[in-house]
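Anyone up for a design puzzle?
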């Protein structure tokens, strides 16, 4: 009879370990997914910066031309 209680306790412990591992796996998967979203946002930002720099450069050139024509 003592073996049956030990087996039941072992099965309960196994079930608890399995549930804990599954929960940990889900949490890890969720965190990786959130990290991927952040990386995608960063990559989009990194591709837009050169475009903004080019637009700013163009605007500054136009301002300089306007100032030069104003001074003349």
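Challenge accepted. My sequence:
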């Amino acid at each position: 009879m003592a073996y049956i209680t030990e087996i039941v306790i072992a099965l309960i412990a196994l079930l608890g370990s399995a549930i804990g591992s599954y929960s940990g796996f889900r949490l890890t998967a969720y965190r990786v997914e959130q990290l991927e979203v952040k990386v995608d946002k960063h990559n989009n930002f990194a591709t837009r910066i050169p475009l903004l720099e080019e637009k700013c450069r163009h605007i500054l050139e136009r301002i300089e031309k306007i100032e030069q024509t104003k001074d003349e």
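A detail worth pointing out: The longest helix spans residues 2-71.
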